[in-house]
Design goal:
Blueprint (H helix, E strand, L loop, with lengths): L1 H13 L6 H11 L3 H14 L4 H9 L4 H22 L8 H15 L3 H6 L1 H22 L6 H4 L3 H19 L6 H14 L5 H18 L11 H4 L2 H16 L1 H23 L13 H15 L11 H17 L6 H39 L7 E2 L19 H11 L6 E2 L8 E7 L3 H4 L8 H13 L7 E7 L11 E7 L8 E6 L2 E6 L7 E5 L6 E2 L2 E3 L2 E3 L7 E7 L4 E9 L3
Parallel strand pairs: 1-2, 5-13
Antiparallel strand pairs: 3-4, 4-5, 6-7, 7-11, 8-9, 8-12, 10-11, 12-13
Helix pairs in contact: 1-5, 3-4, 4-8, 5-6, 5-8, 5-17, 6-17, 6-18, 8-10, 8-11, 10-12, 11-12, 11-16, 15-17, 16-17
């Protein structure tokens, strides 16, 4: 395990700053890495951005060299916690080294988006860090120890410490993820009801989990995340909008993990029966139904959010793996066990070689890119070459500068540049102009609206809400880019005020691989166009009341424009057809 920790430390040292990681870097550059800066970041995250506990702890992973020390310990901590939950004891006895190797190999095989989960810090802190807290919280409920007071000794003080500790640990676990709170509460509640002797810490742990989960769901930042998408889509809306085909596609990651686990279980049972393996008396696994039921609940709740992705099923797949691990361990106990150990070592070594190749190359290329940007004159628009691994895969996030919005934000906020051009990719397609009547020059200048249409509208709403006195009319329009189809009609993102009807909104509906767009208030819409910057626009056909087909002809950044007789509106933008 020491060798694995060293390997993880090297890879985390090579991990470049990508995607949402630039937000951490910008904060630390602006506010420093002091305790006060951390507390201010926590407050801002909870009120304005992502209120998860892992998001806040991510602050430390951008303070070097803490990341290469802490993150490998957390990742190995998950492996040890999975071992304890599967075995019912700590890994201390003879033969446990091989068992830990088996757990590590299974984690590598079944975890969705394994490269991003381990080596993309925004994912690691949001899905691995909280998972470790939740697994540790589950340990006493699983029955690893009969009472937490035995860890500190007998007496009332020890019981009080255990009760208070579980309250705090439960609150931290509840603050982990939106889709994990209720399944873990169910796990703890069933364990409490089935316990032969109920202890105060069992109650406090459940109260803490419920309180942390409520604090997460009720955080002001939840209504602002994803540009308010959570408010637009209720959990039921999110499921219905994807229809049956879309939800089945969304379950592809856990389905693949389940198939892998079933194959491992089948092979292990065959080996154990062929060699008449006897169960190890030192292992006390729980019935598999405990873990499978919890895993199923974790995956099901992962479908209720407005966003999807394999990362939402990490907890589910690793909890399901706990049910299979004891079966694989049985195959270690006899002469064929050498084959099992060899396969586990081969899986770990293969991943180490793959990750080493990918992340050393990404490290070199990104470091060269960062040096070029740091040396560029302020206010300029330098050109950088794309990363070799430009597309996202299971192993690597891909080139984050594929997003025009992100690279413009990084250019201006992190390096003081006007923009960044990536060789071979479209340049930033447009900018925004805010017009207020009566004018409020101090407010209208210096604002940088994100290219993402939903985020731009959210910012527009926020700007108007804090403007005093309230303007009579406000219009956010697109400048620097136009379509021939506009026919001199202005291109508007959003508007508000006397005599102005609100800009129509668009919602994407996903039925399997077929996509369509629902446009609100489309009674006056005369024509709808879809375009990729640099290519001719294409007309979009109406397929029903307020519904238009979304012709995805290749993965790119699409822009959807809906026009009335005298005005065009940007209703959908920054949509990647590959996701």
């Amino acid at each position: 395990m020491l060798a694995i920790w060293i390997g993880l430390a090297i890879l985390t040292a090579w991990e470049p700053v990508l995607g949402d990681g630039w937000d951490y870097v910008a904060w630390i550059d602006a506010h420093g890495a002091s305790p006060r800066s951390f507390l201010d970041f926590c407050s801002w995250s909870y009120r304005e951005d992502n209120p998860r506990l892992g998001q806040m702890l991510g602050f430390f992973t951008y303070v070097e060299p803490l990341h290469m020390v802490l993150t490998p310990l957390v990742e190995l901590g998950v492996v040890v916690a999975l071992f304890v939950l599967a075995a019912g004891r700590l890994p201390a006895q003879r033969g446990d080294g091989a068992r830990l190797l088996v757990v590590t190999a299974i984690v590598l095989l079944v975890t969705p988006q394994i490269g991003l989960i381990l080596f993309y810090r925004p994912f690691t802190v949001n899905y691995v860090y909280p998972l470790l807290i939740q697994l540790v919280w589950a340990l006493p409920y699983r029955g690893t120890v009969s009472t937490l007071s035995t860890l500190a000794g007998p007496g009332l003080a020890a019981a009080a410490a255990a009760t208070g500790g579980m309250l705090v640990l439960g609150f931290a676990a509840g603050m982990g993820n939106e889709h994990t709170g209720i399944p873990w509460l169910g796990f703890g509640a069933v364990a409490f009801l089935r316990a032969p002797r109920r202890r105060p810490w069992m109650v406090s742990g459940l109260i803490g989990m419920a309180a942390g989960y409520a604090a997460l769901l009720l955080a002001p930042g939840q209504g602002r995340r994803y540009a308010g998408l959570g408010h637009d889509y209720s959990p039921l809306d999110a499921v219905l909008a994807r229809d049956i085909g879309g939800n089945l596609v969304a379950l592809a990651a856990p389905a693949l993990a389940a198939a892998t686990l079933l194959a491992l279980a089948g092979v292990s049972m065959w080996i154990a029966r062929r060699t008449a393996a006897e169960p190890d008396d030192s292992l006390r696994p729980l019935p598999a139904r405990w873990w499978l039921a919890t895993a199923a609940a974790l995956s099901a709740f992962g479908l209720l959010g407005p966003k999807l992705g394999g990362r939402l099923h990490v907890a589910a797949t690793l909890v399901a793996a706990i049910a299979v691990v004891p079966l694989v361990w049985r195959a270690l106990a006899h002469r064929r066990g050498a084959w099992v150990r060899g396969v586990a070592i081969a899986v770990i070594a293969g991943h180490a070689l793959l990750f080493g190749h990918l992340y050393w190359r990404a490290h070199r290329e990104c470091e060269a890119r960062y040096r070029l940007l740091a040396a560029a004159p302020k206010g300029s628009t330098p050109e950088v070459v794309p990363l070799t691994d430009i597309k996202p895969t299971r192993w690597f996030r891909g080139d984050d500068f594929r997003s025009p919005d992100l690279r413009r934000r990084v250019a201006r906020r992190n390096y003081g540049l006007k923009d960044i051009v990536v060789r071979g990719l479209p340049a930033t397609p447009w900018d925004y102009a805010l017009e207020l009547s009566p004018p409020a020059a101090a407010l209208a200048t210096g604002l940088e609206f994100p290219l993402d249409i939903a985020k731009a509208r959210q910012m527009f709403t926020d700007v108007l809400a804090r403007t005093t006195p309230q303007p009579e009319r406000a219009v956010l329009s697109v400048v620097g880019w136009s379509l021939p189809e506009q026919r001199d009609r202005p291109l508007i993102v959003d508007r508000a005020g006397a005599g102005l009807t609100p800009a129509p909104r668009a919602r994407l509906s996903w039925d399997g691989l077929d996509r369509s767009v629902r446009i609100s208030d489309d009674r006056d819409v005369t024509d709808v166009w879809i375009a990729i910057p640099g290519e001719p626009a294409r007309p979009v056909a109406r397929s029903g009341p307020g519904r238009f087909q979304f012709p995805v002809w290749r993965a790119s950044t699409y822009t959807l424009v809906a026009c009335t007789v005298d005005t065009c509106f940007l209703v959908l933008a920054q949509y990647d057809g590959a996701t």
